[in-house]
Fold this sequence. Notes:
By secondary structure, the chain is of the alpha/beta class. The protein has helices at about 15-25, 40-45, 55-60, 75-85, 120-130, 140-150, 165-175, 185-190, 205-210, 225-240, 255-265, 285-290, 295-315, 405-415, 425-445; strands at about 5-10, 30-35, 70, 90-95, 110, 130-135, 155-160, 180, 195, 215-220, 245, 270-280, 320-325, 330-340, 345-350, 360-365, 370, 380-385, 390-395. The chain is built from 15 helices and 19 strands.
Amino acid sequence: MKKVITYGSFDLFHEGHYKLLKRAKELGDYLIVGVTTEHFDYSRGKLNLIDPIMTRIENVRATGFADEIIVEDHEGQKIEDIQRYNIDIFTVGSDWTGKFDYLNAYCKVIYLERTPDISSTIIRHGRGQLIRIGIIGTGRVAPRFFEESSYVSGAEVVAAYNPDVDSAMEFNEKYKLPTYVDNFEKFLDKIDAVYIASPNETHAEYVRRSLMAGKHVLCEKPMTFTYDEALELYTFAKLHGLRLMEGIRAAYLPAFQQILAVAKNGSIGRVVGIDATFTRLPAIGSREQCDYKYSGAFLEYGCYGMLPIFKILGTDYEDVEIKSILGDSGIDIFTEIHFQYSGALATAKAGAGVKSEGALIIAGTQGYIYVPAPWWMADSFEVRHEDPNIVERYRSEFKGDGFRYEIAEFISKINGVGQSDYKLTAGESKEMAKVIEQFMKLRKKNQGD
Length: 449
Ligand code: CTP
């Protein structure tokens, strides 16, 4: 019996997939089809699959060509499968020509002619699922957003806006995008969604104006300085069927999802302490060091520390205390936020112009999770116990600078895939605004305004 194997995502099942499977089956007597998991597709840079894995499997099954369907979830699995199932022929479409020649050492490799002019990507775009994004603010993060968005299928940055002419023109020259400096309405006309990366004090107003124009919004943290304003903006977005997401990058990383799962699944017992530190030494003269009203350690990095605390212990803390060390002109260079819960204590530390170990430690009654610096860009972590010989190590996907996972989440939400915002809920974001409000009051007092 001649055994054939092929693999694919088979998202939005189309004629090209059908023909490929038909011809694969004709190559032998028994066809095995490997369907990729979302996690595996993520790891190879295929973000934003539309169909869940069960739908994709069912669609392959419905063709009647597959004698067996398996799931592909890791790199190197093809070699394992070829040996385990005694495969004679490995086949894929001609878009992969040459890429799998190394499998010739194990079986025959055949590239089948790809059906022209159709692909899952084309269908996604054709469904109007290409989201045109405009960037507000063309400073330091805008180029990173632009570059990372190219890895997210279904996302395209088409315009930028910045009332600061010099910054706008510099961006325009480099990225060849229409960049607006005064006509905000015209800029909004070009797009479906905005990414807001302007100075902190302008975030909320840009969010409001964009939502009112019917645009989905991804806004850099901190989105607002008050709870009421956060409430107003999230309520407005919900009422109008718009997506509003606060851009706390760590929340969307694959490793962070794993950390939360391990913290909650009992591996370390009951969680009683969390310590999350984020520090950076910003460039001399940068906003983080000079803008004593709307920047500084807490406003730039405080949300990162609050993220794992709220995700793991919730937002029903009994008490919160904020303490800062001030630098010149009253800007905070180091801030600690202490949360007291019934049965747990947590600290978020933020430093701008102060450097410390950027680790995340989650302490439990039976062990602890150690996420090494920089934890907000985690790709691995450990679970440690009393016995130092027992250590469980976890590894996760981390591509580029991690920005693409946040962008992918934004696009998925706009497309109505995975609509629930469990990675960072509106409720958690509003609770962060509440702490920010408290910090701003303290700052005013400290600065004697
Ligand atoms: N395939 C094909 N003809 C097409 C599209 C896909 O023969 N027009 C083949 C691929 O070469 C692969 C299999 O179908 O062997 C599964 O491909 P998959 O990557 O799931 O589909 P694509 O449509 O190429 O997906 P995407 O656009 O997301 O890359």
